[in-house]
Amino acid sequence: VSATTAEKPRKRYPGEAKGFVEEMRFVAMKLHTKEQAKEGEKEVKQPEERPVQRWEPSVDGYLKFLVDSKLVYDTLEGIIDKAPFPSCGVTVVLLSAKSSFFFRFRASVVWSNEKNKVISLMWSASDAEFRDTGLERSEKLAKDLQWFKEQGYTIPEPSSPGVTYAEYLKELSEKDPQAFICHFYNIYFAHSAGGRMIGKKVAEKILDKKELEFYKWDGDLSQLLQNVRDKLNKVAESWTREEKNHCLEETEKSFKYSGDILRLILS
Ligand code: HEM
Known about the structure:
The chain is built from twelve helices and no strands. The chain is mostly helical. The chain folds into two domains: 45-82 and 132-266, Heme Oxygenase, Chain A, CATH 1.20.910.10; 85-126, no CATH class. α9 (177-206) packs parallel to α12 (251-262).
């Protein structure tokens, strides 16, 4: 038997043939409950895992949810926006001749130590691509909070679930790009799916059906989502199987942190 014919077929991961986003989606859908989504497999343990139709939200709770969500989006969008190499002007000029990708790549390496080298390198391939995707929510949430203020509500300070998640995202952005991408995917895509449904139901119950900016996108949402799927798939193409698995394994934490924030609606 030759070495080639004796080789075992490599393990296939669910969704793999369609690209890495499909793998992330597969893992995420299983972490829903049956009540949340038909592909769900998890049993209901937390209040926010019960059917949204049966939620009894309060305006105060919903405001806390919006404030903490804004902190998370501010953090996420701030991370994506910020240049990874703030003060390397001279080097940049010398190295930026070829393309912006090249320039980012080289500049990061020049200003990082040996361990950070890999991180910066991977980041430089992805961070610029996820800027201005049209999925950003920070400014929309600012408008919504302004509207609540005009209605006479006091806007609370961010609470523990939002603060904790924001800190965690900052930490990941510096040391774990694969895990960070998992959160990036889940935060934006969850909001475009279950998040929208929640927004509609909550508005029916406590906001006289007022449609918040949080649930409106400029342009065709399905096209914006597809553009981001394409970019995510492209970034993950350069990952090893171990890096991909590491990203997928982070999904549970993403549900945990987002679940803690969702639960505020019911507080
Ligand atoms: C998709 C519901 C919480 C991540 C969906 C879908 C529904 C849903 C109905 C669409 C399923 C389909 O395509 O057929 C809910 C409800 C939730 C909730 C009711 C809570 C009350 C979450 C959380 C996360 C999450 C906490 C992660 C942080 C996702 C992702 C998708 C999804 C990644 C796939 C979106 C896509 O295919 O573009 N959810 N979900 N969901 N949800 Fe959730």
